[in-house]
């Protein structure tokens, strides 16, 4: 359990400290934007792998009885979460997390102006439902709380960064997913970033369901969905 908690703390710090504007600007200035994001992505993947490796070695302590419907929650929520994360990272988004620069937001912001954070939270909560044990509560619950808790912080930073122009940009999107669409404040549209994210999500989902998830995490989602 100690290694698991240590890995989780390192992961959370890795996504907190470099996100501070002054530290992020200093790192980009020293490394260059492309090198910074490449190195940051690599380290993030390695640390995330450490987190899952450590979690798989923690004793299983159940909290609730498993049921087929719980696995179906994950089967629906996980691809949605992955799509939002990928689309958010690939799209220009001056008001939130993105690996691209620019002032004209991508089509994903019509769904929410924080797609990466919402996607991560939806992915985590979807996995939490289907994994009713202590380690999963700590792991996926911690991920979800971290992602959702970062939204107010990014909102404050965007307001300070954009000043009076923030209201104009924020008026065409919303914090809550789909709220701007349902209220009629913005139309649904598409772009290349959405197409790439959708294609990548579909390919990744098919690979995971075809055996990738079982190979990585020793659990087959389709078997779990029909096992009870």
Task: Describe this entry's structure for a reader.
This protein folds into two domains: 1-58; 61-225, no CATH class. The protein contains ten helices and no strands. It has helices spanning 2-14, 21-31, 33-56, 68-90, 115-130, 134-162, 165-170, 179-182, 192-217, 221-225. Helix 2 crosses helix 3 (33-56) and helix 4 packs across helix 9 (192-217).
Main beta-sheet strand count, sense and barrel state = none
Please report which band the strand proportion falls in: under 5%, 5-15%, 15-25%, 25-35%, 35-45% or over 45%.
under 5%
Count up the helices.
10
Distance between the termini: 29 Å
Number of strands: 0
Helix content: 55-70%
What is the secondary structure topology, with strand pairs?
Elements: H1 2-14, H2 21-31, H3 33-56, H4 68-90, H5 115-130, H6 134-162, H7 165-170, H8 179-182, H9 192-217, H10 221-225
Helix pairs in contact: 1-3, 2-3, 4-5, 4-9, 5-6
Labels describing this entry:
2 domains; 0% strand; mainly alpha; 10 helices; 228 residues; single chain
Question: Can you describe this structure in just a few lines?
Answer:
The chain is built from ten helices and no strands. It is an all-alpha fold and 228 residues long.
């Amino acid at each position: 359990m100690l290694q698991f908690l240590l890995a989780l703390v390192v992961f959370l710090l890795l996504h907190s400290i470099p996100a501070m504007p002054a530290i992020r600007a200093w790192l980009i200035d020293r490394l260059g934007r492309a090198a910074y994001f490449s190195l940051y992505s690599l380290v993030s993947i390695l640390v995330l792998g450490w987190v899952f490796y450590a979690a798989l070695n923690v004793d299983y302590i159940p909290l609730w009885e498993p049921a087929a419907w719980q696995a179906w929650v994950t089967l629906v929520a996980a691809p949605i979460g992955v799509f939002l994360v990928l689309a958010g990272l690939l799209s220009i988004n001056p008001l939130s997390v993105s690996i691209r620069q620019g002032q004209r937001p991508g089509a994903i912001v019509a769904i929410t102006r924080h797609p990466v954070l919402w996607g991560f939270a939806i992915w985590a909560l979807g996995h939490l439902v289907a994994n009713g044990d202590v380690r999963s509560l700590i792991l996926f619950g911690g991920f979800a709380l971290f992602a959702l808790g970062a939204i107010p912080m990014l909102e404050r930073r965007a307001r300070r960064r954009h000043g009076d122009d923030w209201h104009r940009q924020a008026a065409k999107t919303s914090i809550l997913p789909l709220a701007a669409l349902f209220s009629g404040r913005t139309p649904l549209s598409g772009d290349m970033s959405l197409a790439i994210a959708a294609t990548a999500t579909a390919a990744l989902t098919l690979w995971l369901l075809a055996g990738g998830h079982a190979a990585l995490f020793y659990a087959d989602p389709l078997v779990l969905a029909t096992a009870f």
